[in-house]
Design a protein that fits this description.
CATH class: Alpha Beta
Organism: Lactococcus lactis subsp. lactis (Streptococcus lactis)
Largest sheet: 3 strands, mixed
GO molecular function: glycerone kinase activity
Keywords: Kinase, Transferase
Shape: flat
Order of helices and strands: EHEEH
Number of domains: 1
CATH architecture: 2-Layer Sandwich
Radius of gyration: 13 Å
Domain DhaK: 1-74
GO cellular component, one term: cytosol
Distance between the termini: 13 Å
Strand content: 5-15%
CATH topology: Hypothetical Protein Tm841, Chain: A,domain 3
């Protein structure tokens, strides 16, 4: 699960949204194995949140998502 702030949404709002989404998904019997919250893809002074969900069928993808990186941000 990726919770992305569009630019002017506060981290507190992003984490509150993430908490609510995780609870709703648990009610549906879904479990989250990876979660990233932050301003990952922004737009100048834009308010809002984007949510990305991905079904992981191969556990190696979790290793890839958690692998160290030299990228500027993640």
């Amino acid at each position: 699960m990726l919770v992305n702030g569009l630019g002017s949404t506060t981290l507190m709002e992003l984490y509150s949204f993430q908490y609510d989404v995780m609870r709703l998904l648990e009610l549906e019997g879904l479990s989250i194995k990876f979660c990233k919250v932050g301003n990952l893809m922004t737009s100048c002074d834009m308010s809002g949140i984007s949510l990305t969900l991905c079904s992981v069928k191969d556990p190696r993808w979790l290793d890839y998502l958690n692998a160290p990186t030299g990228a500027f941000t993640w």
